[in-house]
Design a protein that fits this description.
Elements (H helix, E strand, L loop, with lengths): L2 E5 L4 H12 L3 E6 L3 H4 L6 H6 L4 E4 L5 H8 L4 E4 L6 H4 L3 H21 L6 E7 L7 E4 L3 E3 L6 H5 L15 E3 L12 H20 L3 E6 L1 E3 L12 H10 L4 E3 L6 E2 L1 E3 H13 L6 E5 L5 E2 H12 L5 E3 L16 H7 L7 H12 L9 H10 L5
Parallel strand pairs: 1-2, 1-4, 2-3, 4-5, 5-9, 9-14, 10-13, 11-16
Antiparallel strand pairs: 6-7, 6-8, 12-15
Helix pairs in contact: 1-10, 6-8, 9-11, 11-13
Protein backbone atom coordinates (compact mmCIF):
# COMPACT_ATOMS: atom_id res chain seq x y z
CA UNK A 1 0.00 0.00 0.00
CA UNK A 2 1.56 3.26 -1.09
CA UNK A 3 -1.36 5.55 -1.95
CA UNK A 4 -3.26 6.75 1.10
CA UNK A 5 -6.31 9.01 1.22
CA UNK A 6 -6.68 10.99 4.45
CA UNK A 7 -10.04 12.67 4.89
CA UNK A 8 -9.69 15.70 7.13
CA UNK A 9 -6.02 15.52 6.30
CA UNK A 10 -5.47 19.26 6.82
CA UNK A 11 -6.72 19.07 10.40
CA UNK A 12 -4.68 18.63 13.56
CA UNK A 13 -4.29 14.85 13.51
CA UNK A 14 -4.46 14.63 9.72
CA UNK A 15 -1.68 17.11 9.00
CA UNK A 16 0.69 15.45 11.48
CA UNK A 17 -0.15 12.04 10.06
CA UNK A 18 0.39 13.31 6.52
CA UNK A 19 3.87 14.63 7.34
CA UNK A 20 4.93 11.36 8.96
CA UNK A 21 3.54 9.18 6.17
CA UNK A 22 5.22 11.30 3.47
CA UNK A 23 8.51 10.91 5.37
CA UNK A 24 7.96 7.14 5.19
CA UNK A 25 7.52 7.27 1.42
CA UNK A 26 3.75 7.14 1.05
CA UNK A 27 1.82 9.13 -1.56
CA UNK A 28 -0.84 11.07 0.30
CA UNK A 29 -4.08 12.56 -1.00
CA UNK A 30 -6.03 14.87 1.32
CA UNK A 31 -9.78 15.48 1.11
CA UNK A 32 -10.67 18.43 3.33
CA UNK A 33 -13.23 21.25 3.26
CA UNK A 34 -10.96 23.60 5.28
CA UNK A 35 -13.68 24.31 7.84
CA UNK A 36 -13.67 27.93 9.03
CA UNK A 37 -13.93 26.81 12.64
CA UNK A 38 -10.50 25.16 12.30
CA UNK A 39 -8.77 26.98 9.44
CA UNK A 40 -10.19 30.50 9.73
CA UNK A 41 -12.06 32.62 7.21
CA UNK A 42 -9.15 32.88 4.77
CA UNK A 43 -8.60 29.10 4.84
CA UNK A 44 -4.87 29.71 5.14
CA UNK A 45 -4.10 28.08 8.46
CA UNK A 46 -0.69 26.85 9.56
CA UNK A 47 -2.10 23.31 9.56
CA UNK A 48 -3.08 23.55 5.90
CA UNK A 49 0.17 25.26 4.93
CA UNK A 50 2.16 22.47 6.59
CA UNK A 51 0.80 19.86 4.17
CA UNK A 52 -0.46 21.59 1.02
CA UNK A 53 2.83 21.08 -0.83
CA UNK A 54 3.42 17.57 0.53
CA UNK A 55 0.24 15.92 -0.66
CA UNK A 56 -2.31 15.99 -3.45
CA UNK A 57 -4.93 18.30 -1.99
CA UNK A 58 -8.63 18.13 -2.91
CA UNK A 59 -10.80 20.90 -1.54
CA UNK A 60 -13.98 18.96 -1.04
CA UNK A 61 -16.58 17.72 1.38
CA UNK A 62 -17.30 14.20 2.62
CA UNK A 63 -20.99 15.10 2.35
CA UNK A 64 -20.53 15.27 -1.43
CA UNK A 65 -20.41 11.84 -3.07
CA UNK A 66 -18.63 13.18 -6.18
CA UNK A 67 -15.80 14.50 -4.00
CA UNK A 68 -15.40 11.02 -2.54
CA UNK A 69 -15.38 9.51 -6.03
CA UNK A 70 -12.64 11.89 -7.15
CA UNK A 71 -10.53 11.37 -4.04
CA UNK A 72 -10.74 7.56 -4.06
CA UNK A 73 -9.24 7.12 -7.53
CA UNK A 74 -6.10 4.99 -7.31
CA UNK A 75 -6.04 4.83 -3.51
CA UNK A 76 -4.90 1.76 -1.58
CA UNK A 77 -6.18 2.76 1.86
CA UNK A 78 -8.30 5.40 3.57
CA UNK A 79 -7.74 7.02 6.95
CA UNK A 80 -11.13 8.57 7.66
CA UNK A 81 -10.57 11.47 10.06
CA UNK A 82 -13.04 14.02 8.66
CA UNK A 83 -15.76 14.71 11.23
CA UNK A 84 -17.56 17.38 13.15
CA UNK A 85 -16.12 17.29 16.66
CA UNK A 86 -17.11 18.72 20.03
CA UNK A 87 -19.58 17.18 22.45
CA UNK A 88 -21.29 20.39 23.57
CA UNK A 89 -21.80 21.84 20.12
CA UNK A 90 -23.22 18.54 18.88
CA UNK A 91 -26.16 18.89 21.26
CA UNK A 92 -27.66 21.78 19.28
CA UNK A 93 -26.17 21.28 15.82
CA UNK A 94 -27.60 17.81 15.49
CA UNK A 95 -28.31 17.88 11.77
CA UNK A 96 -24.81 19.03 10.86
CA UNK A 97 -23.14 16.37 13.02
CA UNK A 98 -25.31 13.66 11.49
CA UNK A 99 -24.80 14.89 7.95
CA UNK A 100 -21.01 15.02 8.21
CA UNK A 101 -20.28 12.07 10.47
CA UNK A 102 -22.94 9.59 9.38
CA UNK A 103 -24.16 10.59 5.91
CA UNK A 104 -20.62 11.53 4.86
CA UNK A 105 -19.40 8.07 5.88
CA UNK A 106 -22.35 6.41 4.13
CA UNK A 107 -21.31 8.02 0.81
CA UNK A 108 -17.89 6.41 1.21
CA UNK A 109 -19.31 2.98 1.98
CA UNK A 110 -21.88 3.26 -0.80
CA UNK A 111 -19.06 3.72 -3.33
CA UNK A 112 -17.17 0.72 -1.94
CA UNK A 113 -20.31 -1.42 -2.12
CA UNK A 114 -21.40 -0.44 -5.62
CA UNK A 115 -18.51 0.94 -7.66
CA UNK A 116 -15.08 -0.24 -8.77
CA UNK A 117 -12.30 0.78 -6.37
CA UNK A 118 -8.81 -0.18 -5.20
CA UNK A 119 -9.23 0.19 -1.43
CA UNK A 120 -7.46 -2.52 0.58
CA UNK A 121 -7.74 -1.11 4.12
CA UNK A 122 -9.72 1.43 6.13
CA UNK A 123 -8.81 3.22 9.36
CA UNK A 124 -11.71 4.96 11.09
CA UNK A 125 -11.00 7.59 13.74
CA UNK A 126 -13.40 6.73 16.51
CA UNK A 127 -13.55 8.39 19.94
CA UNK A 128 -13.48 7.72 23.65
CA UNK A 129 -16.78 9.64 23.72
CA UNK A 130 -18.63 6.51 22.63
CA UNK A 131 -18.08 5.03 26.10
CA UNK A 132 -19.63 7.91 28.00
CA UNK A 133 -18.56 7.40 31.58
CA UNK A 134 -15.55 5.17 32.02
CA UNK A 135 -15.23 1.87 33.82
CA UNK A 136 -15.52 1.67 37.60
CA UNK A 137 -15.45 -0.95 40.33
CA UNK A 138 -17.92 -1.26 43.18
CA UNK A 139 -16.80 -3.30 46.20
CA UNK A 140 -20.28 -4.79 46.38
CA UNK A 141 -21.26 -5.17 42.73
CA UNK A 142 -18.01 -5.52 40.76
CA UNK A 143 -17.41 -3.78 37.45
CA UNK A 144 -19.86 -0.95 36.91
CA UNK A 145 -20.63 1.39 34.01
CA UNK A 146 -22.53 4.24 35.68
CA UNK A 147 -25.63 5.84 34.27
CA UNK A 148 -25.74 9.54 33.47
CA UNK A 149 -25.32 11.66 36.57
CA UNK A 150 -28.55 13.24 37.72
CA UNK A 151 -29.01 17.01 37.67
CA UNK A 152 -30.28 17.06 41.27
CA UNK A 153 -27.00 15.52 42.48
CA UNK A 154 -24.87 17.87 40.39
CA UNK A 155 -26.75 20.89 41.75
CA UNK A 156 -25.78 19.72 45.25
CA UNK A 157 -22.12 19.40 44.28
CA UNK A 158 -22.26 15.59 44.22
CA UNK A 159 -20.18 15.11 41.10
CA UNK A 160 -18.86 11.55 41.43
CA UNK A 161 -21.03 8.87 39.82
CA UNK A 162 -22.62 6.30 42.10
CA UNK A 163 -23.15 2.59 41.75
CA UNK A 164 -26.56 2.21 40.08
CA UNK A 165 -27.14 -1.02 42.02
CA UNK A 166 -26.25 -0.17 45.63
CA UNK A 167 -25.70 3.61 45.33
CA UNK A 168 -22.26 3.07 46.82
CA UNK A 169 -18.87 4.69 46.12
CA UNK A 170 -17.05 3.69 42.96
CA UNK A 171 -13.35 3.22 42.21
CA UNK A 172 -12.19 4.44 38.78
CA UNK A 173 -10.66 1.82 36.48
CA UNK A 174 -9.14 2.06 32.98
CA UNK A 175 -11.73 1.65 30.23
CA UNK A 176 -11.07 -1.30 27.92
CA UNK A 177 -12.54 -1.97 24.48
CA UNK A 178 -15.13 -4.40 25.88
CA UNK A 179 -16.53 -1.74 28.18
CA UNK A 180 -20.17 -0.74 27.84
CA UNK A 181 -21.01 1.71 25.07
CA UNK A 182 -23.01 4.57 26.52
CA UNK A 183 -22.41 7.85 24.63
CA UNK A 184 -23.71 10.94 26.39
CA UNK A 185 -23.68 13.30 23.39
CA UNK A 186 -24.85 13.41 19.79
CA UNK A 187 -21.17 13.52 18.83
CA UNK A 188 -20.52 10.27 20.70
CA UNK A 189 -23.54 8.61 19.07
CA UNK A 190 -22.39 9.61 15.58
CA UNK A 191 -18.84 8.37 16.20
CA UNK A 192 -20.17 5.02 17.39
CA UNK A 193 -22.38 4.75 14.34
CA UNK A 194 -19.44 5.59 12.06
CA UNK A 195 -17.44 2.84 13.72
CA UNK A 196 -20.25 0.29 13.44
CA UNK A 197 -20.98 1.12 9.80
CA UNK A 198 -17.37 0.76 8.72
CA UNK A 199 -16.63 -2.40 10.71
CA UNK A 200 -19.82 -4.07 9.44
CA UNK A 201 -19.39 -3.14 5.77
CA UNK A 202 -15.68 -3.96 5.80
CA UNK A 203 -16.55 -7.55 6.70
CA UNK A 204 -19.28 -7.71 4.06
CA UNK A 205 -16.93 -6.29 1.41
CA UNK A 206 -13.85 -8.18 2.67
CA UNK A 207 -11.85 -4.99 3.19
CA UNK A 208 -9.88 -4.97 6.47
CA UNK A 209 -10.81 -2.08 8.75
CA UNK A 210 -9.54 -0.78 12.08
CA UNK A 211 -11.35 1.47 14.56
CA UNK A 212 -9.13 3.67 16.72
CA UNK A 213 -10.85 5.15 19.76
CA UNK A 214 -8.75 8.27 20.33
CA UNK A 215 -8.71 9.87 23.75
CA UNK A 216 -8.12 13.64 24.21
CA UNK A 217 -5.47 14.42 21.60
CA UNK A 218 -3.26 17.49 22.15
CA UNK A 219 0.03 19.00 21.09
CA UNK A 220 1.72 21.66 18.97
CA UNK A 221 -0.37 22.70 15.99
CA UNK A 222 -3.83 22.16 17.42
CA UNK A 223 -6.33 24.93 16.78
CA UNK A 224 -6.15 27.82 19.25
CA UNK A 225 -9.21 29.48 17.70
CA UNK A 226 -11.79 26.71 18.10
CA UNK A 227 -13.52 27.17 21.48
CA UNK A 228 -15.56 23.98 21.25
CA UNK A 229 -12.87 21.34 21.63
CA UNK A 230 -9.74 20.94 23.74
CA UNK A 231 -9.35 22.48 27.18
CA UNK A 232 -5.62 22.97 26.65
CA UNK A 233 -6.31 25.35 23.79
CA UNK A 234 -9.21 27.01 25.59
CA UNK A 235 -7.25 27.57 28.81
CA UNK A 236 -4.17 28.75 26.89
CA UNK A 237 -6.10 31.31 24.87
CA UNK A 238 -7.80 32.65 27.99
CA UNK A 239 -4.58 32.92 29.99
CA UNK A 240 -2.71 34.62 27.15
CA UNK A 241 -5.53 37.15 26.79
CA UNK A 242 -5.29 37.94 30.52
CA UNK A 243 -8.62 36.28 31.28
CA UNK A 244 -9.50 34.04 34.19
CA UNK A 245 -10.09 30.29 33.96
CA UNK A 246 -13.47 29.14 35.25
CA UNK A 247 -13.28 25.44 36.14
CA UNK A 248 -16.52 23.50 36.17
CA UNK A 249 -17.65 21.07 38.86
CA UNK A 250 -14.85 20.81 41.44
CA UNK A 251 -12.03 20.42 38.95
CA UNK A 252 -11.33 16.83 39.91
CA UNK A 253 -12.98 15.49 36.76
CA UNK A 254 -10.33 13.77 34.66
CA UNK A 255 -9.46 12.80 31.11
CA UNK A 256 -6.78 10.86 29.26
CA UNK A 257 -4.59 13.37 27.36
CA UNK A 258 -2.57 11.72 24.60
CA UNK A 259 0.19 13.55 22.71
CA UNK A 260 -0.18 13.98 18.97
CA UNK A 261 3.05 12.11 18.13
CA UNK A 262 1.79 9.04 19.98
CA UNK A 263 -1.55 9.21 18.15
CA UNK A 264 0.22 9.40 14.78
CA UNK A 265 2.47 6.46 15.67
CA UNK A 266 -0.50 4.33 16.78
CA UNK A 267 -2.38 5.17 13.58
CA UNK A 268 0.55 4.17 11.38
CA UNK A 269 0.95 0.93 13.33
CA UNK A 270 -2.72 0.15 12.71
CA UNK A 271 -2.32 0.98 9.01
CA UNK A 272 0.79 -1.10 8.43
CA UNK A 273 0.30 -4.11 10.71
CA UNK A 274 -2.09 -6.80 9.50
CA UNK A 275 -2.63 -7.90 13.11
CA UNK A 276 -4.81 -4.80 13.47
CA UNK A 277 -7.29 -5.92 10.80
CA UNK A 278 -10.94 -5.84 11.83
CA UNK A 279 -10.13 -4.85 15.39
CA UNK A 280 -10.95 -1.96 17.74
CA UNK A 281 -8.23 -0.25 19.78
CA UNK A 282 -8.07 2.45 22.42
CA UNK A 283 -5.43 5.09 21.71
CA UNK A 284 -4.47 7.12 24.76
CA UNK A 285 -1.81 7.72 27.38
CA UNK A 286 -3.28 5.24 29.84
CA UNK A 287 -3.36 7.87 32.62
CA UNK A 288 -6.09 10.10 34.04
CA UNK A 289 -5.24 13.80 34.53
CA UNK A 290 -7.59 16.15 36.37
CA UNK A 291 -8.76 19.48 34.98
CA UNK A 292 -7.34 21.14 38.10
CA UNK A 293 -3.89 19.77 37.27
CA UNK A 294 -4.14 20.93 33.66
CA UNK A 295 -5.06 24.46 34.77
CA UNK A 296 -2.31 24.60 37.39
CA UNK A 297 0.42 23.45 35.01
CA UNK A 298 -0.64 25.86 32.25
CA UNK A 299 -0.92 28.75 34.71
CA UNK A 300 2.63 28.11 35.92
CA UNK A 301 4.14 27.60 32.47
CA UNK A 302 2.60 30.80 31.10
CA UNK A 303 3.44 32.70 34.32
CA UNK A 304 -0.08 34.05 34.04
CA UNK A 305 -1.70 36.70 36.23
CA UNK A 306 -5.15 35.33 35.47
CA UNK A 307 -7.12 33.72 38.27
CA UNK A 308 -8.27 30.12 38.46
CA UNK A 309 -11.73 29.81 39.94
CA UNK A 310 -13.75 26.68 40.64
CA UNK A 311 -17.37 27.62 40.06
CA UNK A 312 -19.25 24.39 40.63
CA UNK A 313 -21.14 24.98 37.40
CA UNK A 314 -21.62 21.97 35.16
CA UNK A 315 -22.55 21.05 31.63
CA UNK A 316 -25.32 18.53 31.14
CA UNK A 317 -24.02 15.43 29.36
CA UNK A 318 -20.44 15.82 30.54
CA UNK A 319 -18.85 12.72 31.98
CA UNK A 320 -16.80 12.64 35.15
CA UNK A 321 -13.89 10.34 34.29
CA UNK A 322 -12.54 8.20 31.47
CA UNK A 323 -9.04 6.95 30.72
CA UNK A 324 -7.86 4.24 28.38
CA UNK A 325 -6.83 0.68 29.05
CA UNK A 326 -4.05 0.15 26.48
CA UNK A 327 -3.52 -3.57 27.04
CA UNK A 328 -5.02 -4.62 23.70
CA UNK A 329 -3.10 -2.20 21.45
CA UNK A 330 0.13 -2.87 23.35
CA UNK A 331 -0.19 -6.64 23.14
CA UNK A 332 -1.37 -6.67 19.50
CA UNK A 333 0.63 -3.89 17.87
CA UNK A 334 3.39 -3.14 20.37
CA UNK A 335 2.14 0.41 20.89
CA UNK A 336 3.29 2.22 24.00
CA UNK A 337 2.92 6.00 24.42
CA UNK A 338 6.30 7.72 24.58
CA UNK A 339 5.33 11.24 25.72
CA UNK A 340 4.04 11.70 29.27
CA UNK A 341 1.72 14.58 30.08
CA UNK A 342 4.33 16.73 31.84
CA UNK A 343 6.65 16.53 28.82
CA UNK A 344 3.87 16.91 26.28
CA UNK A 345 2.24 19.94 27.85
CA UNK A 346 5.64 21.66 28.09
CA UNK A 347 6.13 21.10 24.35
CA UNK A 348 2.62 22.39 23.68
CA UNK A 349 3.18 25.57 25.71
CA UNK A 350 6.57 26.18 24.05
CA UNK A 351 4.80 26.06 20.68
CA UNK A 352 1.90 28.26 21.81
CA UNK A 353 4.36 30.95 22.87
CA UNK A 354 5.57 31.18 19.26
CA UNK A 355 2.04 31.86 17.96
CA UNK A 356 0.09 35.08 17.67
CA UNK A 357 -2.32 35.50 20.55
CA UNK A 358 -5.71 34.41 19.27
CA UNK A 359 -9.06 36.03 19.96
CA UNK A 360 -10.69 34.46 23.00
CA UNK A 361 -14.04 33.10 21.78
CA UNK A 362 -14.73 31.07 24.90
CA UNK A 363 -17.40 33.36 26.35
CA UNK A 364 -19.29 33.26 23.05
CA UNK A 365 -19.30 29.46 23.01
CA UNK A 366 -20.36 29.29 26.66
CA UNK A 367 -23.24 31.69 26.04
CA UNK A 368 -24.40 29.44 23.22
CA UNK A 369 -24.46 26.47 25.60
CA UNK A 370 -26.24 28.50 28.28
CA UNK A 371 -28.88 29.67 25.81
CA UNK A 372 -29.52 26.03 24.91
CA UNK A 373 -29.95 25.10 28.58
CA UNK A 374 -26.87 22.86 28.60
CA UNK A 375 -24.93 24.70 31.34
CA UNK A 376 -26.24 24.97 34.88
Amino acid sequence: MKNILITGGAGFIGSNLTIKLVEKGYNITILDNLSEQIHGKNKNSALFNSVKNLATFILGDVCNKSDWEKALIGQDAVVHLAAETGTGQSMYEITRYNEVNIIGTSHFLNILANDKHTIKKIIIASSRSIYGEGKYNCKNDGHIYPLDREEKDLLQGKFEPKCPVCQGTLELKPTDELSEIHPSSIYGITKHQQEQMILLMSKVLNIPAVALRYQNVYGPGQSLTNPYTGILSIFSTRLLNGNDIDIYEDGNESRDFVFIDDVVNATIMALENQKSNNKIFNVGSGFATSVNEVARILHNLYKSNGNITISGKFRLGDIRHNYADLTKITDTLGFSPEVDFKTGIARFVKWVKTQEIQEDKYDYSINELKNKGLIK
